[in-house]
Specification:
Layout: H1 2-22, H2 24-28, E1 30-31, E2 34-35, E3 43-44, E4 48-49, H3 50-104, H4 113-125
Amino acid sequence: MKKIKLGIIGIIIVLVLVFAYQNQVYFKEKHILGLDLLVTAPLTTPEVSNAIICLASFFLGIVMSFIMGLSGRVKRKRLVKKLNSSLADCEKEIKTLKSKIEASEEPKPTEESMPAADEQVAQAAE
């Protein structure tokens, strides 16, 4: 499994390098980004190359996916704690019920006491 994973990662790295090599001209171009909110003066950035914009977008996506996944992990962790406490309560209840059953059970007749019981029944019938 590790070899397959390394192979897939290697293929992805090669594809990214080929993509970057074939688009060198695009990545070297520089642009000024602007934002006009209509309530303030327009905001602009200094000239930024497309490669920086792509890398910033990539890392912003990684951070956002981590944050989105973090909320799911927190929910699952809470659920596991809740289920573990419920399991502990159920095991505790099972233990108390078993002890109650053992305490309330009458001793079962053994084979040695059975003939004596048969004799008592026979005497009562006479």
